[in-house]
Write the C-alpha cells for this entry.
Amino acid sequence: MKNIEEYFRIARLLIGLAVSALFMPASANAQSSPTVQLNFTGTYIATTCPLISSPDMTVTLPTVSAQSLPTAGAVAGSKIFTIVMKCDSGVTGARVYFESGATTDPVTGYLNPQAISGVNSASNVQVMLLNEDGSPIKVGDRSTMKIIPVTSTDPTSANFIARYYATGRATAGMVNTFVTYVVEMP
C-alpha cells in the first residue's frame, strides 16, 4: 500500500512538471509582449434637430453663359439655399454635414456633374458649396462646415450658397449633381 501511495505521489509530481513545461513557452512569450489596452469613449445624445424643410430639395442654379467660366478657378451663378431645422431644448449649435460621395471631387471637395441620358452635359465645371459667410465648403471635411448657433426651439435656418466653379474652360450643357447631408450636434 505504501508503494502505491509513493507511486501516485511521484506520478502527480511528474504530471505537474509535464503540464508546467507545456505552458512555460506561452507564459514566457506573454511576459515579453506588453499588455496594451485600447479604450473607446463616445456620447450618444437623445436631443436632435429634425428638418422642417424638405430633406430632398432641388436647388436651381442660374443660367450662365460658357464665357462666364473661361479659365480654371472662375466662379459664376451663385444661388442661396436654406435648410431649416427645429432643435430640441438644450441644443446650442448644429452642423449641416455634407457627406463625401460618388459626385465629390477628392481634390477640390466640390461636386462633379453627372451625365444624364440624352442630354448634353457641360464640361470643366463643378458645383461649389459655401457657408453663408462665403467660406468654401470641402464636401466631406467637417472643419470647413460652420456650426449654426441655435438660440431657441423655434425653427433655425442654415443658409448656404451653391455656384458654378470652372476646372478649365467650360463648355455649354446641363449641370446636374447631388450631395447627401446630415444634421449633427457638434
Notes: Residues 66-184 form a domain with the Immunoglobulin-like fold (CATH 2.60.40.1090). DSSP finds one helix and seven strands in the chain. The chain has a mean pLDDT of 85. Strands lie at 75-85, 93-99, 123-131, 136-137, 147-149, 156-171, 180-184.
